[in-house]
User: Fold this.
Amino acid sequence: MTHTLAIIKPDAVAAGNAGRIIAHLEERGFRLLAARMTRLTRDQASEFYGVHRERPFYGELVEFMTSGAVMPLVLKAESAVGKLREAIGSTDPAEAADGTVRKLYAESKARNAIHASDSDENAANEIHFFFSDADLLATR
Ligand code: CMP
Assistant:
């Protein structure tokens, strides 16, 4: 079993889809290990998405991710990183497979409902961006 980080993004929280998205992931075999609701500051969103700093959509991404509440989640499953990326679908909901979170709940490439870590190394870093070791140990 491995761990990964998901973030239910402001569009999905505001639309009242957070509970449905968590249920969807649990039904597909993910165990919820930790969860928070928070609103990112501009500094937090800029740091979290730092790898995209040079991309043309970076400003829009930071703006969007600070526009409302988000829910970071730590999920556990066998090969959690790959399994979650499969479950959420392509970045662009128009290209996402049927039955994926983004096909069901995303509006656009920018307002795409959910984030998922893209490697085990990034998952570890992203989990620690939002959760302390104590948070994770408490729910083991
Ligand atoms: P996420 O998985 O959170 O990681 C980077 C995010 O950048 C991605 O989801 C999208 O929300 C966003 N993104 C990627 N491409 C574009 C784009 N062309 N326009 C706007 N946002 C984008």
User: Anything to note?
Assistant: The pocket of adenosine-3',5'-cyclic-monophosphate is lined by residues 52, 57, 60-61, 91, 109-110, 112, 115 (CB under 6 Å).
